[in-house]
Structure formats: C-alpha cells, structure tokens
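Q: what sequence does this backbone want?
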C-alpha cells in the first residue's frame, strides 16, 4: 500500500512520522484512524477555546453560556480580546487553511489566525492552551513553525495578491493562560530556503521508507500513549492518555532518534 497521491502533508502528519513511522503508516497509508471519544478536560478546554476564538474573529456570537467551563474560557476570551483587539487595520483570517504544491511536494497548514496588517506584514497567530510556559527553543525548532512559515511564504500570494517576502512574516505563539507572554518568531529568505530543503528531504524519506523493516523498539517510549498499542504490543490502549495534539507538535526534534532509511 502506498500513500495517496493527493495526500497533503501537515505538520501533524510529519510529527507522527517523526515519532513513529508505523503510526504514520497505520493512520495515513492504511487509513486506520478514528477519533476517540475520551477527550480529557484540558483537550476539551483547548478545543473550545479555538472554537470561540474562531467565532470572535469571524464576528459570530460567542454564546459562551453553552460552554461548561465558562469561567476559565471567559477569562481566556477576555485575554484574547485584549491581546488582539481587532481594531488594527488589515484583514483577519481565522482557522485559515493553505495548501501548496511544489513539484510533487504537497504541504498544508491550518492557521488559528492570519492577520495581514495595514503595512502588508503577515502575522501568524497560534494559540497554545497548555498552562505552563512553552520554551522559545521548542517553538522555534518545531515542525509546526517550519511548516507554517514556509507554506505562507510559498502560498501566501493567493491571500495577499502579490508574492510574499519572507521578511514580512511573523509567527506569534500565545498562551491564554499566560496572557502577558508571546513568543515571536520572524522569518528570512535563508530560513525559507533551509525549510524548503528540510521538508522536501523529509517527505521524500517518508515516501520511500521501508515500513516493514522498521524496528518498532525505536519508538517504544511512545507506545503507551498510542492508539495502536494493541496492534503492536497487544497492550491495552488507555484513551485518556493518548497524545494530545499539541504535545506531538512540540516534541523536541533534538530528542528524537534519527529514523534510518
Ligand atoms: S504502538 Fe508504538 S510502535 Fe506501534 S504505532 Fe504506536 S508508537 Fe509505533
């Protein structure tokens, strides 16, 4: 079985491969993916915050009273309104998806918020709903940062109406629980070129990977929180402990063993 030719790589899919190629194979090549119904409280709160932020920037009524955890979400939404008051000039694009294809490399990114400001700068906002601060280094080196900035640099002309200068891109990570802190990452032509090579190499590696020959013990530290634990190890899957999406996004690249081809 091979990857569908219309598959667009997201940062999430790349991270899944990075921690375990077998997990990638099962999800994206064999299509064995289900969304479990056992969301823990923090995942649910994070998801609800993203829904409310989308409504706020789309000028849709928030209807906060329908959210069970009204108190914390209310505080977070107040913090968001202070942080991005929507008064600045320019356009706001919440939950915006962008896809690019360069030769046979297909990538996609879904942004929490894109703002093209009055001076033509493109600002990527990403909400992280963990309670503890996420380090600058983890964010700067994450696959998410690479994919999001690169896709915008290469595909943002469709939004902006003209080619995008990487120097005009700024990525801002913001945690509503720590509202006075933003991690801000600029971009450059050099970084765009480096990301392009990195992502091309990684996608080619994934396409040519010998999944049958992969030694699963290289990924064993992730098994206990993987939905395929029963397939691989006949161990019970504890749904409440499955990876949170953001945890996967932020795994430190340097800590991951190089996956051999
Ligand atoms: S159970 Fe372990 S080896 Fe199997 S797919 Fe998940 S992380 Fe990979």
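A:
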């Amino acid at each position: 079985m091979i990857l569908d030719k219309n598959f667009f790589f997201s940062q999430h899919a790349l991270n899944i491969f990075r921690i375990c190629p077998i997990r990638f194979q099962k999800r994206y090549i064999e299509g064995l993916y289900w969304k479990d119904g056992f969301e823990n409280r923090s995942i649910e709160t994070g998801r609800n915050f993203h829904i409310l932020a989308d409504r706020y920037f789309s000028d849709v009524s928030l209807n906060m009273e329908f959210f069970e955890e009204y108190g914390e979400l209310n505080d977070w939404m107040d913090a968001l309104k202070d942080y991005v008051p929507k008064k600045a000039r320019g356009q706001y694009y919440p939950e915006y998806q962008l896809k690019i294809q360069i030769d046979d490399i297909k990538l996609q990114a879904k942004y929490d918020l894109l703002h093209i400001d009055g001076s033509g700068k493109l600002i990527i906002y990403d909400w992280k709903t963990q309670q503890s601060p996420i380090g600058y280094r983890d964010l700067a080196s994450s696959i998410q940062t690479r994919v999001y900035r690169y896709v915008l640099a290469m595909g943002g002309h469709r939004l902006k109406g003209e080619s995008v200068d990487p120097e005009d891109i700024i990525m801002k990570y913001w945690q509503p629980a720590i509202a006075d802190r933003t991690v801000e990452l600029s971009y450059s032509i050099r970084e765009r070129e480096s990301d392009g090579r990195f992502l091309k190499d990684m996608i080619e590696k994934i396409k040519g990977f010998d999944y049958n020959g992969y030694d699963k013990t290289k990924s064993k530290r992730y098994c206990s929180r993987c939905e395929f634990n029963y397939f691989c190890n006949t161990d019970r899957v504890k749904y409440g402990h499955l990876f949170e999406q953001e945890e996967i996004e932020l795994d430190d690249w340097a800590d991951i063993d190089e996956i051999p081809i």
